Amino acid sequence: MTEASFTPRVFSGIQPSGGLTLGNYLGAMKRFVDMQDAGAHETVYCMVDLHAITVWQDPADLQKNTRELAAGFIASGIDPEKSILFNQSRVPEHAQLAWVFNCVARMGWMGRMTQWKDKAGKNAEQASLGLFAYPALMAADILIYHATHVPVGEDQKQHLELTRDIAAKFNHDFGVDFFPITEPVIEGAATRVMSLRDGTKKMSKSDPSDLSRINMTDDADAIAKKIRKAKTDPEPLPSELKGLDDRPDARNLVNIYAALAEVSPQAVLDDHAGQQFGTFKPILAELAVEKLAPIGSEMSRLMADQPEIDRILARGAERAREITEPILAKTYDIVGMVR
Ligand code: AMP
Ligand code: TRP
Asked: Rg of the Cα trace of the chain?
């Protein structure tokens, strides 16, 4: 079977583990919306609550964060009629396929994952078994839809390579061409949005400093203040990108501008070369507020209507299962389960 025989389908997921950042928005969410609107693929987007519990989540917070993430998807432009939008635990085939993949993937593959090494740290004995197996569940998320394309940020690249390895090993072990070899889609100026306090570290919801990130729920004042306080250097903006090579903080602000304005980083320099950050930051702040503040206020509005969010997720899960049930059934047949 060649790739052409699979329906072009996009899948991606975000963990409802609290707080959406500008990194999530530019690295993931905004690109999900672009792919939905381009209309070249079916688009399936998921709040991966089963992934979230690989580290401790307070149950009440998990529920709240899942609904808030759903509101974030919709406020950013995901249309639940055009895309399938749901939470992972509602579609049991994800966990069922993940078990099969736990038996396909090798311990050594998992042990090499940098996210596992970072998150488990020196205390691997105390980490959950789920955290170790996390990439097999992620492969199941993708392959239970026979998804052909997966938009993510740079940090997920290794997990997508592992997804391809799992699909290939399954196909090889059982002598089938059943699972597609999925293409990662990692592109644009903002596949790696960095901390506003340290341009060498990823912007993250878990950073102890709130000034390091822009949260999607920040209001206009907070957004402007964080950009004003962002770490920079005393040099003016150069006219060529290579002038930013050793200036990670400056490079980050240029990339953020480019992604928000939907232009290339070079185009930003063409317009702003020679400016000091004292001049450039207020321009960036104005753009960020214009693009982000309406999303934050739409999120609050949606959050006030919880029954509507719950209806959307229930309907999304029903539509998802129309795809996942037959793929799981066929997988069980291939593996030799009596049904
Ligand atoms: P997470 O919040 O870790 O579940 O990530 C959800 C999505 O956002 C994934 O596609 C990540 O690659 C992306 N993402 C998270 N943080 C960043 C960042 N700082 N820059 C770019 N993409 C990011
Ligand atoms: N592991 C991803 C992250 O932390 C979230 C995720 C889970 C995902 N399943 C996925 C992303 C499937 C893309 C496709 O960001």
From this structure: 21
